[in-house]
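User: I'm curious whether this sequence folds into something compact or stays loose and floppy. Could you predict its structure so I can see for myself?
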Amino acid sequence: MKKISFKLGILFFVLIIGMETILFLSLYVSLVNDRIEEEMNQLLARGNSHRDVLETNYDRPTIEHVVMMESKAETDVVITDQDGNILYFSNNIFQTARKVTKSRTREIPHHGIVLQKNWENDSHISTVSPIHINHKVKGYVYMFQNTASLHTMIFKLKHHFLITGIFSLLLTIIAILFLSKVITKPLIRMKEATEKLSKGDFSVRLQVNGSDELSQLGKTIQTLANDLEYLKKGRKEFLASISHELRTPLTYVKGYADIARRPDIEEKEREKYVSIIYEEAEHIQKLVKDLFQLAQLDENTFQIDKETVNVCSFMSKIYEKMLPAFQIKKIRLIHHCDTDLEINIDLKRFEQVMLNLLDNALKHSEEGTTVLFEVIQEEKHTKIIISDEGIGIPKEDLPYIFDRLYRVDKSRSRTGGGTGLGLAIVKEIIEAHRGTITAESVLGKGTRMIITLVTS
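Assistant: Here's the prediction. I'll summarize afterward.
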């Protein structure tokens, strides 16, 4: 397979050489025509100049002086009478002049005309200017120029164009080689980067500057590499966390099951170990259930069936369901809803969100504190805020609390409760409702969870 730099180089070469050839040919033809036209005009102007002199002094000495002047020039002059008979001529132009003077058949204007223009095939180009004396034609001044000088001039012009063309070709090749490398270098780097990505190596670093399409492509590939690297790292951490989460309760289950199987153990003690085994089995079941929910959310198979719900009525039912648990721990639960707003939500899923958030507030609050959840309406948005006066969340942990299996309590104690997946599921469900959830917290003072939903 040919390299892209070679293909681009060939493409640029063909395009540029094509354009240069057209421009050079156009310029060459234009210059040749202009130079020939200029020579003919100069020859005609020279004939008109002699004609003007003769019209002033039409006598033998003046005519001989004109002929003598042209004898020392590259041009030749022929002077005829009004009938075309040659009276005077310079050098060896007589034979050529006879053919030209006898072939004239039309009247010549006073400003003169060019008689012979075919410089490529004829031996001479010529002009004629009439001599008017007393408003009558007295004779004619014919001017001749050998076309050999014109051919020499054109040859030199071709030579200059050839040298310029070769020089331009070399410069074009150098420029194309440079430009093709400049253009293809970032493409090659991107190709190498994508090959690394395809092999699972996400440590790609592309130094991209600028804002053109290539730069944007490079930035996109770099963003993709960063995202894949983050996902790879997150996957490793997730698998390690899941392994830990499963290993711990399974260790308890196995350990206590071994003890419970002993024949010499008392029945009361056996019941105690069986109870622990049951609790750990429930913990595993909850973990697997949460993982299954997250898998459904990731695969977009998590069904959200919205219905129109009166928000105050919905919050009142949540309050009644959670109040006994708060009363047992002697924590005040306050519910505030001053609007009769209706929102479109999945009743079952959103109840799961509220119970999860209130359960977290309950776990991390002390006796005698207050937990408040309220509904606030703001133009096109509805906010549901759960505030507690609990232990709070450290500032460095706050950005990560919605990550999967992230725990503020790094000890992962069995009695700490939870699987570390609850808030991740909450976030996914809320986002499936096209809403957002944010957290505000001050360590030692409490936490606020803020759900924002778009009011239809």
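Summary: The chain is about 55% helix and 20% strand. The two ends are 57 Å apart (CA to CA).
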